[in-house]
Amino acid sequence: MDPPGARRRRARAGDKLVGVTTSTPATPLQLEGWEHVTSGKIRDLYEPSVASPFSDLILVVTTDKISAYDHVLPTPIPDKGKILTALTVWWFDQLKDIVPNHLVSLDVPAPVQGRAMVCQRLTMFPVECVARGYLTGSGLAEYRQTGQVTGIQLPPGLSDADRLPHPIFTPATKAEQGEHDQNVPLAAVADQLGRDTAERLRDTTLALYTRAEEVARERGLILADTKFEFGVEAANGLLTLGDEVLTPDSSRYWDAQTWAPGGPQASFDKQFLRDWLANESGWDRNSKPPALPDGIVQKTRQRYVDAYERLTGRAFFA
Fold it and tell me: Which of 205, 211, 231, 195 lies closest to 103, judged by CA?
């Protein structure tokens, strides 16, 4: 682990290739120097052992689990944790001049090498900061009912996958596991966090989306929408980008060459898996989700690999 004086020297992704490993275990690992704190849908969080001087750090381990429709599916996607971690680190480097991020070091215990980050502990804001440049998903559903998305009036006659006149900030509440995030207007965030904080979250979110959309487009991808999470450091109250960023878990990526508004798009995210669950699996969403067939697992994994390789220009090798 980095010494205290090195905490502010943000780790870089580097140019080394990311390799394939087996899926992460179902239960959190025992890691020397770290104690498991909690597990979310996809990530395990650890804090330093009691005797450690690094109490302001956490270890974020990304597993190979995958979620859809507010359920964690029983079948992991091999190497997903490594892809998400590597892509997040790469994006942190692209965006670091806009807002600082919580990455401190990639010097992690061997069992989680490649899928874990040592991060600055943050007090997180209880809001998903969503940016949309295109109309789809829950935004499309709301628009069809009201002509708006989280209170933002949009032009009439828009269809699925249309580009919006300008990116919009459509925050959502953070739901408990198994529950669904709810889109809310900016005013609701202001009521909870204060007007200045709400507007700063909005402006930072849109600045990050604008940069990322440009980067993705240069690489032949459309970033339709994405979500960010922010927190503040206890010592100085500095607004800091946390969690993962701009991965196929948290973003919709479409193929720019085949983009055609009016219906579903060829995607580089987990929409393929959602479509299989909704249209082909026969799953009743009130029951436990089904195991994924090998073919669906491999096609989902390939979409994550393709997104990583197209965005970074680096090979992901087996």
Answer: 231
- One DSSP character per residue, 6-45 reads GTTS-----SPPEEP-PPPPSSPPP-TTEEEEEE-SSEEE
Name the helix (H) or strand (E) containing 48: strand 43-48
Q: Could you give all domains of the chain from N- to C-terminal order, each with its CATH number?
A: 125-230+244-298 (3.30.470.20)
What is d(CA 296, CA 302) in angstroms, rounded to the nearest whole number? Answer: 10
Predicted confidence (pLDDT) per residue in 184-228, tens digit: 999 999 999 999 999 999 999 999 999 999 999 999 999 999 999
Instruction: Say whether pTM exceeds 0.85.
Output: yes
Structure tokens at 48: 């330093």
| Cα→Cα distances 250→84, 229, 279, Å | 10, 10, 22
Do residues 226 and 167 make contact, with C-beta atoms less than 8 angstroms apart? no
Comparing CA positions, the residue from 41, 71, 28 lying closest to residue 244 is 41
**Among candidate residues 107, 90, 11, the one with its CA nearest the CA of residue 54:** 107
In what helix (H) or strand (E) does residue 137 lie, and over which residues does it extend? helix 137-146
Tokens of 242: 């946390």
**Under 8 Å between Cβ of 129 and 201:** yes
Tell me if 76 sits within 8 A of 63, measured CB to CB: yes
Total residue length of the chain: 318
What are the tokens at 206?
A: 């849109």
Beta bridge partners of 223: 253
Structural tokens at position 223: 């970033």
**Distance (Å, whole) CA 145 – CA 175:** 23
CA distance 203 to 274: 31
Digit-coded pLDDT (tens) for 264-273 = 998 998 888 9
